Every structure is written in structure tokens, then in C-alpha cells.
């Protein structure tokens, strides 16, 4: 995304959202994002001149599912933008918070901006950012959550294959995550397994 306000080119400033939910007429996802194209569509809808067919990820959630199948994989791919955002909030942020609690005073300073560094594509970082990231992942727990984020991201990049293959890759990722013994990662795995396509509920 270029900026969180899609005003000048009909919402296409939210380009990452567009590619994540390519079948959606609505390009804004977060509450602070503004999509002027969606505003026009809504206006036409009120006037009876438009009917948006899809407006974002079509997924459902059902707790206490122990398996991760092809339908789960399809739902996760459809909502991968939010899945990665949840990983940053539910895994990376608590890991940083835990380490901050072990430190005092100026020793916490290197952890400023750690969530952004551990959540962002390395290609988007400048040399200073890359050096800061390298210093962060030298801490074992940070290296673990960072490398697992990269592995999860790489699974989405292989999404053109069969859903069974994708499900196998996700099951392996979940097994690796649970093997770390991290409660945050275990809880996140449970969240991933709760995804379903609506028609399978």
C-alpha cells in the first residue's frame, strides 16, 4: 500500500489490499483506510445502479477443530492479509513484550520499533533497519518468530498449487510452531485451524 487513503486513483493506493482480496470491490480493510472508489460504489448501490458481489475475504471460523484440511487452507489463503497481521499482533508483539519485561531502563531501547522490523518485508528496510533486524534476531526467541513468519509468508507465495499441497505445508508449519513450546505460537496455531469456508460450516 502506498498510503492508507485511496483518494487520487480510485482506491488503488491500497494496492496490497487489492492483490490480497483481488475479487473484492472494496479495497479498504482496516478502519483507518479510506477508499473513495468504494464510496462511489456505495452511492451507486443506494441509487440502485450497482450491486457489489464480493467485499472482502469470505471465511468463517469454528473453534475446537483439530485438523487442518484443504478447506481450511483455502480459507486461510483467502484471508492471508489478516492472518499475517494477526501473527504480528498475537505472536511477535507478545514475544517483544515478554523480553521488555526482563529488561530495565536503557536496555529496553533496542526493542523500540521491534514489531515493525520483525513484521516487515526485509526488502523494504534500509541498511539501518536491516542492521537493527539482524541484532534483534540474534536473540533466540526473536529469531524463531521471525523465521516462522518468513516460512508462513512463503506458503502464501506457493498458493497456485493444489489446496491439498498447501494444507500439507500449513500442517508442517503448525507442527514446527507448536514444537517451539511457545504459548503464543500454540494459540495462533489453534486460531489457524479454526478457519473454514462458509459452505463447509
Task: Describe this protein's structure.
The strands form two sheets. A two-stranded parallel ribbon has the order 1-2. A two-stranded antiparallel sheet has the order 3-4. Helices cover 56% and strands 4% of the residues. It is mainly alpha-helical and 201 residues long. Helix 1 links the parallel strand 1 and strand 2. The mean pLDDT is 85. It is built from nine helices and four strands; from the N terminus they run E-H-E-H-E-H-H-H-H-H-H-H-E. Helix 4 runs antiparallel to helix 7, helix 4 runs antiparallel to helix 9 and helix 7 runs antiparallel to helix 8. It starts with a strand and ends in a 5-residue tail after the last strand.
Keywords:
single chain, 201 residues, mainly alpha, two-stranded parallel ribbon, two-stranded antiparallel ribbon, 56% helix, globular
Spatial strand arrangement across the major sheet: 1-2
* Gyration radius from CA atoms, angstroms: 19 Å
Largest sheet: 2 strands, parallel
Quaternary state of this entry equals single chain
Name the average pLDDT: 85
- Low-pLDDT runs of 5+ residues are none
Brief sketch in words of this structure:
The chain has nine helices and four strands. The protein has 201 residues and is mainly alpha-helical. The longest helix has 23 residues, at 80-102.
Topology of helices and strands:
Layout: E1 5-6, H1 15-20, E2 34-35, H2 36-46, E3 60-61, H3 70-78, H4 80-102, H5 114-119, H6 127-137, H7 140-157, H8 163-179, H9 183-193, E4 195-196
Parallel strand pairs: 1-2
Antiparallel strand pairs: 3-4
Helix pairs in contact: 3-8, 4-7, 4-9, 7-8
